[in-house]
Structures are given as structure tokens and as C-alpha cells.
Amino acid sequence: MTVSPQPEEVRQLVVRAFTELGAQPRCVSEVKETILIDEGKCLARSYRLRGFMAMWLVETGILQFYDPEGEMLRTVNLFEELVPQREAA
Asked: Which SS3 state, helix, strand or coil, does residue 83 take?
């Protein structure tokens, strides 16, 4: 059984990663979030902060991070990254 990552968990991961990459958010709400919906289904979410961008491809559970020049910096498989944290709680 695959457990879908929750949006708040992903948002927290994005904020931590942006901080590690040098785009220090002053608060969580400073990260701008956009949701792509097609025919009533959420396909992707993107997050932006000071030129950095992260894109969550919801169905595949992939989260990709890009620098201000558009170069991919990191890819995270959310099905592997977040599920163990939930099981440990």
C-alpha cells in the first residue's frame, strides 16, 4: 500500500531544503505555493522563494528543486522520504 504524502509535510520539507540551499525564508508563509489542477484532479504543486523553485509531481511522488537559473539541484522521492517518518511516530 502506498501512502500519499500530505501537503503540509511536503511544504515543511520544501522549507527545510530551501534553507539548506541558501534561500532562508523568514516565515513559512513567505514560500509561494501554486497548485495545478486538471479536470478536478491535483497534478502538481510548485513552491517559490527568492528565485528558487520546487515542483511536486503529485501522482509520481517526486519533488524536484531548481536554482534561480533553472538548474535542477535535487530530486526527492516522497514515497521513500516521508513514509518512514510517519511509521516511526
From this structure: helix
Read off φ and ψ for residue 69, nearest 5 degrees: -90, 0
Q: What is the pTM of this model?
A: 0.85
Q: How far apart are CA 78 and CA 70, in angstroms?
A: 21
Query: Do 54 and 65 touch, CB atoms closer than 8 A?
Result: yes
Domain locations in the chain as residue ranges? 27-78
Cα gap 70→1, rounded to integer Å: 34
Beta strands across the sheet bearing 32-38: 32-38, 41-49, 52-57, 62-66, 72-77
Q: What is the pLDDT of residue 42?
A: 95
